[in-house]
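cron nightly-structures :: item 1 of 1
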Amino acid sequence: MRYQLVSFPICPYVQRARILLDAKGIDYDTSYIDLDDKPDWFTERVPTAKVPALFVGDTTLFESNVITEYLDDVSSMPLLPDEPLQRATEKAWIAYSDSWLMSLFRALKSENKPEYAKQVNSLLEGCDNARSFIESRLAHGYRLGAFEIAVAPLLLRIRKVPDIRAAFRERFKDSSRIGLWAQTVLSEDAVQGSLPDDFDERFSRFFDLDNPAHPANISALGRLTESAA
C-alpha cells in the first residue's frame, strides 16, 4: 500500500513525516494544497481541515506526532525506544518542541522589535531547556531518532533567517555538543531533501522576510544580520 501525504509546501509538521518516510525508504506520494482554498476531497476526509494528513487506503490520519508515530510503528528500525519510560520521555520532549516552532512562527509574524525579541528569546530558552536531554542522547553516539526528526524542521528554518541563526549560534556555539548535534541533524540526507525546491521563495514571501522593515532585518537582538553570514 502506497501512502499519500497531504501538505502545504512550507508546513514544518508535514516535513517531519517526509523526513521519517525518506529516512526509512518508505514509498509515498505528496499532494500539496492551498490552505486558503482547500479542495473538497481534503475537507471531506480530514476533520481538522489541517495539514499534515496521511491517507492510508480509506483511513485518514492527522496530527503530525500521530502520523510519525504510526509510521514508526509499522516500519522496520523503530526510532522510538521500546522501554516505556524512555519512550514516554522522548515523546514528552517531542511534544514540548512544538512550542519552539510556535515561538519561531510568532517571531517571524511579529510587527515590532520587542515582540520579535520576546519570541526569539522564548525559542532559545526552550532549546536551552533541552540541553541535558540532548546531551544524554549523545552519550552513546549520535543517531537519527524521533526527537531529531521532530526538531529538524525548526533547525532548517532557523538557518534560513540570518538574525535568528546568529542568535542560535551565539547561544549554542558550533563547537559545543548542542551545536555539533544540530549540524549533524541538518546534514542527514533525509533532512536535506525534505524541502520543496521553491521553499526559500515561499518561506520568505509567507513571512515577508524580504521587507527591510521586518524585525528580523532590523534586529531586535542588537546584532547585524550579516553576522550570521
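cron nightly-structures :: done
The two ends are 45 Å apart (CA to CA).
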